[in-house]
Design goal:
This protein is α/β, with parallel strands linked by helices and 334 residues long. It is 38% helix and 15% strand. The protein contains 10 helices and 12 strands. The structure holds NADPH dihydro-nicotinamide-adenine-dinucleotide phosphate. NADPH dihydro-nicotinamide-adenine-dinucleotide phosphate (NDP) binds at residues 7, 9-13, 31-32, 36, 59, 78-82, 96, 121, 123, 166, 192, 194-195, 210, 212. NADPH dihydro-nicotinamide-adenine-dinucleotide phosphate binds at residues 7, 9-13, 31-32, 36, 59, 78-82, 96, 121, 123, 166, 192, 194-195, 210, 212. Residues 3-254 form the NAD-dependent epimerase/dehydratase domain. This is NAD-dependent epimerase/dehydratase domain-containing protein.
């Protein structure tokens, strides 16, 4: 079977491409330029016979995916901006997220009649109501939605624009499959909390880390004297997120899958690194060892992903130590 994966060049994308290839699927990956396509081909050169790439320079352009969807049997749409380096919320985050999603669904209806399943990478941010803070006692699960509106996301100045872009894109996807004529496929969304874990070998360099990787690298690059506050106190391993995409693709219920492996705190990361990796001791801030900065906070119910997809999550120590060891290998390779 041929699967189209957008965003395959990213942190989660490389692991996802790898897991589909390892299971014997043929993968067509899109990226915005030929260099990104070439590097994806070289990272996964062991599966060269199963992997092809295509440039889609602007995912918001009408008909952007008309060629990329030809002959595919399934779709994973992951491409979406995840960065705090933005100047215009609408142009840099909202429109690529929403219109990229609508375009790939429209191209699927028009040109990919064999597709029975589309998996969209959404986020816990599409579920959580961050305006309510840490909400001790509250349990988040898949029936809940972020209240962020288009206007609030466009006008946001307090760092919620990315969350809004993910909520609005996912909402657009469900609306599309429920209301558009000619839809012949089911939709699943994967909604992870903060994604950590090792970069796929060879897929990136220390100077070019994505958003969630740079948040952790900042703790060990000797740039900090204090442990920064933890804004999002949950995490999930990138390998589990990739696996969830594969397994969500292989089931047929139209569902959201919320993914969290448990609690996360930057103080715990610093404690772990100082304790387990002696070379890093002088580079990692001390803070208040043993005293996580985040207090009581919401819980996240992941029973659906456990029962329907059968995923057991990697532990905090495995995820963070594997991630940091991958950073150290990248530093040595520079
Ligand atoms: P990366 O930044 O590593 O990858 C993002 C991918 O999306 C890249 O492949 C990039 O492709 C593509 N992309 C980014 N911006 C655009 C744009 N404007 N137009 C077209 N393509 C674009 O991020 P992650 O791997 O961390 O994120 C992947 C997905 O997972 C995103 O949808 C993100 O919202 C979601 N997510 C991530 C979480 C995390 O903690 N990392 C948590 C929850 C959800 P190109 O090669 O063309 O640059």
């Amino acid at each position: 079977k041929l699967i189209l994966i957008t965003g395959g060049t990213g942190f989660i994308g490389n692991h996802t491409v790898s897991q589909f290839l390892s299971k014997g699927y043929r993968v067509r990956a899109t990226a915005r330029n030929q260099d990104a396509c070439n590097s994806l081909l070289s990272v996964h050169s062991g599966h060269r016979d199963l992997l092809e790439t295509q440039v889609v320079a602007d995912i918001t352009r009408p008909g952007a995916f008309d060629t990329a969807v030809k002959d595919v049997d399934g779709i994973v749409h992951m491409a979406s901006p995840f960065t705090d380096k933005i100047t215009d919320n609408e142009r840099d985050l909202i429109l690529p997220a929403i219109n990229g999603t609508k375009e790939i669904l429209q191209s699927t209806v028009s040109f990919a009649p064999k597709v029975k399943r589309v998996v969209l990478t959404s986020s816990f941010a599409a579920i959580a109501d961050f305006s309510k803070g840490l909400r001790p006692g509250h349990v988040y699960e898949e029936s809940q939605w972020s209240p962020l509106t288009y206007q609030a996301t466009k006008d946001d100045k307090i760092g919620l624009a990315y969350a809004g872009s993910k909520k609005l894109a996912e909402e657009a996807a469900w609306q599309f499959v429920e209301t558009s004529p000619g839809v012949n496929f089911s939709l699943a969304t994967v909604n992870p909390t903060m994604v950590y874990g090792p970069a796929f070998p060879g897929s990136t360099s220390i100077k070019n880390l994505g958003q969630s990787m740079s948040d952790i690298y900042a703790l060990m690059d000797a740039s900090l004297t204090e442990v920064p506050p933890t804004l999002l106190p949950s995490f999930v391993d990138v390998r589990d997120v990739a696996r969830a995409h594969l397994l969500a693709f292989e089931t047929d219920q139209p569902q959201r899958f919320l993914l969290s492996a448990g609690d996360f705190d930057k103080q715990n990361v610093c404690d772990l690194l100082r304790d387990q990796i002696p070379e890093l001791k002088s580079r990692v801030p001390v803070g208040n060892p043993g005293k996580p900065s985040v207090g009581e906070h919401y819980e996240i119910d992941c029973s659906r992903v456990r029962s329907v997809l059968g995923i057991e999550f990697q532990s905090f120590n495995e995820t963070l130590l594997d991630m940091v060891r991958a950073f150290m290998e990248m530093e040595n390779a520079e």
